[in-house]
């Protein structure tokens, strides 16, 4: 442990900028340890990375706030937000405070109680201690070190931030508890779904609409209509803190959401998409949850597909390509959606969410008249309406589908929900009645075939470019991975930039740890990754010096499937 950072910085004043690198290491500061993980090469290079470790004795959080992994994640989520606020915007300190979701983030971690002895590389990790990681723009005058300004930032502002944001005594204890309890309730609610035979739950009173397409905070004011569950779907669940809560349970099977345009169908589905994450208090979706293996599926023309068996949906293409072993550099809307669906099931998704707004129409429906006009022999596509039932019956994969434009799904839906002025009602009985009147449509398939598992070739997943590792998030749109850019715009459950970075890092880990070895299936490799992530993300985060969040296997698989260099064996 080094001491005397302030003196060192003063001595370095006026030296060439590169000398900042000599500060790498851990420095003792009043009340915390400042670890300079990586210096900054020049004034225009990415910010330096530092970590601030506050020992348990100084942080002084009561044990019940960090007694379980979920509570530690929640406390860390709260502290990351506080640290980001204390660091301010537009200044030299960059803390990833996160958005509405409470994720396991590199930016803040609280040391664990069990698994004692876990220590994070570089320091921190002891039970009850707090580590915050951030970027710092180190000040310079041209290409020379500004030692005084650096001293002000590293020796005054950073400890001040730790003092204000990372100590129990400086915080509002009621607010901290509420945050941690809220997350614990969401988590408990999500765990309650499977035993109840539900895929999702939306509490009465939940606020689903967001402020705008670009602002994920809740819509406020009298215009925001709180959620009310229809009687037929009402379920009550006991939670550790909120007690008994009532709301709409979405059962397993095929669920259809219908209703007029602009009546809130997509908003409900988007809330379910985000239901795999826990949300901060005040978000409106604290008690809106979906099972962790829920995946949104959509069309995405132009994407690459690598040896996916899409023959359930697509047969005899005009090109003569084998759709049981289908590859393309430029998928169509329908083939992209078919591949994404099969890939999701391959990676372990057990609930699929589909919105007509972003689905390929010809993959969803083919009505009686079109069947009469275009013979089956001339239509390569089998619509999802003929496969969704078998997907549940034979493979245990449920679907929640928004479809206001076609009544054909009434034939196969287990339950039908109608949105009317943002209020849902149960129209299952009426839909069944209507379904008894024959449309003249004939089913085009009777079973969804077993998924063909693929074995990714690790040599095709290269994170290195120009001799070094290159894994970098480009906002939430793309991931720079080695020489490639992975377009993740259609992977809609990605919550923020740090999550994209986490996905990239997990991809690298899959290869580096040998989980992808050319022999294991993708699903098997993801099982191993899950085990790594469960046994502590510390190692995962330590080698990666950027803000990142621990990802689900589903987004890791989605990114891998969109990597244009990917090659697989079968
Ligand atoms: P649909 O998919 O049925 O066409 P959307 O879900 O896109 O409708 O919603 C249409 C508009 O209504 C959006 O601007 C959305 O933010 C708003 N909205 C949705 N649900 C609510 C609600 N509960 N309260 C207020 N506004 C809502
Ligand atoms: Mg819509």
- The geometry reads as globular
Outline the biggest β-sheet.
6 strands, antiparallel
Mean pLDDT: 94
Question: How far is the N terminus from the C terminus?
Answer: 52 Å
Specify the number of helices: 15
Q: Helix share of residues?
A: 25-40%
Would you give an account of this structure?
The protein is α+β, with helices and mostly antiparallel strands and 570 residues long. The protein has 3 domains: 167 residues, no CATH class; 142 residues, no CATH class; 115 residues, no CATH class. It contains 15 helices and 29 strands. Strands 1, 2, 3, 4, 5 and 6 form a 6-stranded antiparallel beta sheet that branches. It has a 6-stranded mixed beta sheet with strand order 16-19-20-14-21-22, with helices on both faces. Adenosine-5'-diphosphate binds next to helix 6.
Features:
570 residues; alpha+beta; 3 domains; 6-stranded antiparallel sheet; 29% helix; 22% strand; globular; binds adenosine-5'-diphosphate; binds magnesium ion; MRB1590-like_C; ABC_ATPase_put; ABC-ATPase domain-containing protein; ABC_N
What is the topology?
Elements: H1 5-12, E1 25-29, E2 32-38, E3 48-54, H2 56-59, H3 69-87, E4 93-94, E5 108-110, E6 130-136, E7 140-141, E8 144-145, H4 147-165, H5 173-193, E9 198-203, E10 210-212, E11 215-218, E12 234-239, E13 243-251, E14 254-259, H6 265-273, E15 288-290, E16 294-297, E17 305-308, E18 326-328, H7 333-346, E19 351-355, H8 361-364, H9 368-373, H10 388-395, E20 398-402, E21 415-420, E22 423-426, H11 428-435, E23 455-456, E24 464-465, E25 468-469, E26 471-474, E27 478-481, E28 484-487, H12 497-512, H13 522-534, H14 538-542, H15 553-562, E29 568-569
Parallel strand pairs: 14-20, 14-21, 16-19, 19-20
Antiparallel strand pairs: 1-2, 2-3, 3-6, 4-6, 5-6, 7-8, 9-13, 9-15, 10-11, 12-13, 17-18, 21-22, 23-29, 24-25, 26-27, 27-28
Helix pairs in contact: 1-4, 3-4, 3-5, 12-15
The structure holds adenosine-5'-diphosphate and magnesium ion (MG).
Protein name: ABC-ATPase domain-containing protein
Domain ATPase of the ABC class N-terminal: 5-168
Organism: Streptomyces pathocidini
């Amino acid at each position: 442990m080094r001491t005397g950072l302030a003196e060192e910085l003063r001595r370095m004043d006026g030296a060439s900028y590169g000398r900042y690198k000599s500060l790498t290491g851990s420095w003792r500061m009043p009340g915390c340890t400042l670890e300079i993980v990586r210096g900054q090469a020049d004034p225009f290079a990415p910010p330096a990375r530092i970590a601030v470790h506050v020992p348990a004795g100084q942080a002084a959080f009561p044990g019940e706030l960090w007694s379980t992994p979920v509570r530690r994640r929640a406390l860390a989520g709260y502290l990351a937000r506080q640290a980001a606020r204390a660091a301010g915007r537009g200044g030299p300190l960059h803390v990833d405070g996160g958005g509405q979701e409470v994720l396991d983030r590199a930016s803040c971690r609280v040391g664990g109680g069990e698994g004692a002895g876990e220590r994070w590389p570089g320091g921190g990790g002891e039970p009850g201690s707090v580590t915050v990681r951030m970027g710092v723009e180190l000040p310079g005058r041209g290409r020379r070190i500004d030692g005084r300004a650096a001293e002000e930032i590293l020796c005054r502002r950073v400890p001040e931030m730790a003092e204000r944001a990372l100590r129990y005594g400086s915080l509002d204890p009621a607010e901290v508890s509420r945050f941690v309890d809220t997350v614990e309730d969401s988590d408990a609610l999500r765990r309650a779904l499977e035993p109840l035979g539900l895929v999702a739950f939306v509490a009465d009173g939940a606020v689903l609409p967001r402020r705008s397409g670009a602002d994920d905070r809740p819509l406020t004011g009298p215009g925001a209509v709180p959620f009310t569950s229809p009687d037929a779907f009402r379920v009550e669940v006991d939670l550790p803190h909120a007690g008994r809560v009532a709301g709409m349970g979405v059962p397993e099977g095929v669920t259809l959401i219908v209703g007029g345009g602009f009546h809130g169908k997509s908003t409900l589905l988007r809330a379910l998409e985000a239901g795999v994450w826990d949300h901060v208090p005040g978000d409106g979706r604290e008690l809106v949850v979906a099972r962790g293996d829920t995946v949104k599926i959509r069309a995405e023309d132009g994407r690459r597909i690598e040896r996916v068996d899409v023959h359930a949906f697509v047969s005899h293409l005009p090109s003569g390509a084998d759709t049981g072993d289908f590859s393309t550099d430029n998928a169509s809307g329908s083939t992209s959606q078919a591949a994404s669906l099969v890939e999701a099931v391959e990676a372990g998704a057990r609930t699929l969410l589909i919105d007509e707004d972003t689905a390929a129409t010809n993959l969803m429906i083919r009505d009686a008249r079109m069947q009469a006009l275009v013979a089956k022999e001339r239509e390569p596509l089998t619509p999802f309406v003929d496969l969704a039932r078998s997907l549940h019956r034979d493979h245990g994969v449920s679907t929640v589908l928004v479809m206001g434009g076609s009544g054909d799904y009434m034939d196969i839906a287990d339950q039908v929900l109608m949105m009317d002025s943002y209020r849902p009602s149960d129209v299952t009985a009426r839909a069944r009645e209507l379904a008894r009147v024959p449309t003249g449509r004939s089913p085009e398939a009777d079973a969804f075939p077993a998924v063909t598992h693929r074995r990714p070739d690790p040599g095709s997943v290269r994170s290195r470019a120009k001799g070094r590792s290159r894994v970098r998030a480009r906002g939430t749109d793309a991931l720079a991975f080695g020489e490639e850019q992975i377009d993740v715009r259609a992977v809609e459950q990605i919550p923020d930039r740090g999550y994209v970075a986490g996905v990239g890092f997990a991809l690298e880990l899959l290869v580096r740890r040998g989980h992808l070895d050319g022999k294991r299936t993708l699903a098997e490799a993801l099982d191993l990754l899950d085990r790594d992530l469960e046994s502590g993300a510390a190692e995962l985060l330590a080698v990666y010096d950027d803000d990142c969040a621990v990802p689900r296997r589903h987004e890791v698989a989605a990114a891998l499937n969109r990597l244009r260099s990917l090659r697989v064996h079968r």
